[in-house]
Amino acid sequence: MYTLSEKIEIIQNAGSLREVQDSGIMPDPDAGEGYYFISYSHKDYKQVFCAVLSLQNEGLKLWYDRGLETGKSWLKDVKRRLYSYYCKGVIFFISDNFLRSESIWNEILMTDSFAKSCVFVSLLKNPLREEIGRIPDDRVREALNRLLRCGRVFPPETSPDMLAGAVLSLNKPKLFQYERAVVEVGGESIDCLEIVGMNDISAKKLVIPQEDEFEGERLPVYKIGDNAFANCIELEELIFPRRWSRVNEKAFYACAHLKKVDFGSPLAEDEATLDLSAFAGCNALTEIAVPPGVDEFYSGSTPPPHIRKIVIPSGDFGDLRFAALQELYEVEIAEDASCNALRFTCCKQLRKVRLPNGLPRIDPYAFIECTSLQSIVIPQSVSSIGLAAFALCEGIDRFSLPEGLLYIDALAFYGNVMEKIVLPASLQKISAGAFACCRGLREVQLDCERLCIADDAFAGCKSLKTVVLNCGQMTMNLEYIGRIDYENLSIQDIFLLKKSDRRSKKTVLDKIFPEAETFYIKDGGVKASFRGGFSRVVSDRQGYKKYVKGRV
């Protein structure tokens, strides 16, 4: 076992860096919490390695490049150690060799970018600032001058205890970079912190604090800014504070290994809003659980590409709107979840959804073009089905509409494949094109007591041959949504549609159901009216009048 003075003597008498390493006297770099990064030229190993041993003898944890490892993986590790939050500062050993090294230029730029505190040991013969002026790269020269303005410069003969004291007195970096912000909470404006950057791209797990100190004050952390955690490529788990308000676009962009996110439990007054585009490029994130109390949780123009499952637990939610999640396969919704709005627009791989029991309505475009959706249970609480809500859901061959349903909006079931539909007694209105181009639809049964129905509600239903009317009263509604070619209507056209004024007119059954060949009308029910070509025949259903197309 060598003493410190013996190790220093071996280094000073060595003929090469390899000889020092082969002697086994240099300790492993320390990557534990609270280390200091040594930035130096390998050609200055004698002076630097003696200083490393002396500083470690003073109790400092040091991470340094021992000089023999090469290649991209080693360079990547050097960058990771410098970027890490556990790196509490940098010690620069500046020499002529140092100033000419392009790899060290990168270390200077990174130190400046992440605002690391630093000290300098000058091994130069001439004044330091004079030598810095000879660096040909403007960015490096400016960065090094910025660092010098905040750091102290020591000569090489500085005693180890003095240098160690200066290093230990450096301002320690914070894990998060903040800016002041203001949010509305419970109708009041409050000062808070917004996270705008991250000082450790190597972190595997992050817990965002509920509050932190900034400029001498302790403030709540309520916002996460654009690109705040972008490219934290090793991040695997993320825990939000319990309460938060806003997460901006691409806040976690390209966190490629992020697998698990706990979104906390914001309160209604926090008006918590999150666009899933905040996780664009997070390809390992396949499942998310929406936090109760969230005001808006949605997917915008650049959603993460691999979300396969969404969990909506028990609780009260605001607007939950998801669009174009191309790999979303499963949605798990608690029966007692309560939502202001719930949409899964154009999620083409979505297979099955069971909606919460208390859902008051199906929102416009809620499941439009969910082409793989095979079944859906519409709860009895639903009173209206919105514009194009189930349009182009080509995989659902059966819909069970709830008793208590009052209104079916325009194009609600456009282009579906069900063969039969029963419209409940509670239904009061069916808007334009609600069942247009349901080409597999063969039979419609209307149990409605009082119904107002658009004259083109069943336009293009070429297989619809039988209509059973149990209605007490029916009026025909001329409600237009523009001049529509139902046969060639695209999804882009649907999103641009606008409804126009409406007026009522005498009900003409073969105008509403232009392809129908047989009508059964309940005795004492709606009065039959046809444009022509229908004849009454002996009914094969007790209690119904029967009309068939053609003369008998």
Automatic annotation (TrEMBL):
The organism's place on the tree of life at top rank: Bacteria
Its GO biological process annotations read: signal transduction
A Pfam family per the record: LRR_5
Recorded hits in Gene3D superfamilies, A to Z, give:
Ribonuclease Inhibitor, Toll/interleukin-1 receptor homology (TIR) domain
SUPFAM superfamilies recorded for this chain?
Answer: L domain-like, Toll/Interleukin receptor TIR domain
PANTHER family documented for this protein: IG-LIKE DOMAIN-CONTAINING PROTEIN, SURFACE ANTIGEN
Protein name (database record): Leucine-rich repeat protein
